[in-house]
Amino acid sequence: MFxxxxxxxxxxxxxxxxxxxDVEHLTKGEQFFCPACHRTLQIKHGQVRKVHFAHMNxxxxxxxxxETTYHLEGKAKLYESLLHSNDxxxxxxxxxxxxxxxxxxxxxxxxxxxxxxxxxxxxxxEFSKRTQLYERANIxxxxxxxxxxxxxxxxxxxxxxxxxxxxxxxTPRSPPYILSFCPKTSLFxxxxxxxxxxxxxTYISIMASKSWLEQPNFLNIDHDSWKEHFLHYKKKxxxxxxxxxxxxxxxxxxxxxxxxxxxxxxxxxxLPVPSFxxxxxxxxxxxxxxxxxxxxxxxxxxxxxxxxxxxNFKRRFKSSHIILRELPLVKTGSYEDAVVEYLDALVSxxxxxxxxxxxxxxxxxxxxxxxxxxxxxQDRIILExxxxxxxx
Length: 392
Ligand SMILES: [Zn+2]
Prior knowledge:
By secondary structure, the protein is an alpha+beta fold. The protein has three domains: 1-59, no CATH class; 62-222; 227-391, no CATH class. It has helices spanning 20-27, 69-83, 124-136, 147-150, 161-164, 227-239, 248-258, 283-294, 306-318, 335-348, 372-391; strands at 3-5, 11-13, 32-33, 40-45, 51-55, 88-95, 100-108, 111-118, 139-146, 156-157, 167-168, 177-182, 187-198, 201-209, 303-305, 352-356, 359-362. The strands form four sheets. Strands 6, 7, 8, 9, 10, 11, 12, 13 and 14 form a nine-stranded mixed β-sheet that branches. Strand 8, helix 3 (124-136) and strand 9 (139-146) form a beta-alpha-beta unit. Helix 6 packs antiparallel against helix 11 (372-391), helix 7 runs parallel beside helix 8 (283-294) and helix 8 packs across helix 9 (306-318). The longest helix is centred in the last third of the chain and has 20 residues, at 372-391. Zinc ion (ZN) binds next to loops.
């Protein structure tokens, strides 16, 4: 911590003093207290981030973040980066109503923000609890992932469930991003996922900025650099992944109900949709369940009812065949968007026709594939067609 309370109740920030000598002189013989728990603090002289306050026994109910050098450094740099704006900025702002200490707190244009610079993994429940507490106090939490926790930023990332929790967006229509900050360069990174091939590969568009942007404008969202990779993955999925043990149930289900081997699944399965990030389950798998449950057996020219599709889809959560992604910061929309977008993608490729928002009609029968080559060829034709009509 950098901010402590003095005996007279005033606050003392170590960041206001540049040299160690100044701090030593000013703090000599004085007692300092934690603004949250009121316990006595000691002054520590670290190697990198020179001076900071610490609890005697390291525990404080207002913060679960262990104060590593990286975290201290990041918090100080974050504070300095935000200072350039004209808004009211406070370092380590203690909010008594929620008993939380925001790393940096800001008031701007009648809006309140709490910046949480997170460098250690916290539990899902802790993340949600802290988010809700801020929200109830009408404060918008801005969760920032320490760059160190993210590793190298590349066009292809493997995000952990914890990192996905940082996904946020400005308006219900703006693209979601994961926000990160690097204390070494004082840069904010906005990582906007454009498509997930599977749980270990997500393609992203990256934007770096010297200042915090409430609404980053991703001009060049990369729409199809993942295309060849995905086609390759889909091919591998047919040739080998479909035989893997975790897909036993899907494979048996596919064979018993449809009398086709899973490797020859219709090319209509595995289409990109904008809300892909809602699901933890890879796109080929959740769409296979949906297709087999709700579309494959529908006779040609018959209708497909969206509420039934959703009901079937939901049933797969219970058995964990489909797993949703928990996104505590994304407030609007749901996995249902991904389901409807998939039905619309099937409309785009001419498999379905949309009659009303809740009624679709099957207008094309899936082809029976006689060989794997044929299936892979269809995968390419369908994906290229879909991406082509989306761009034009
Ligand atoms: Zn404390």
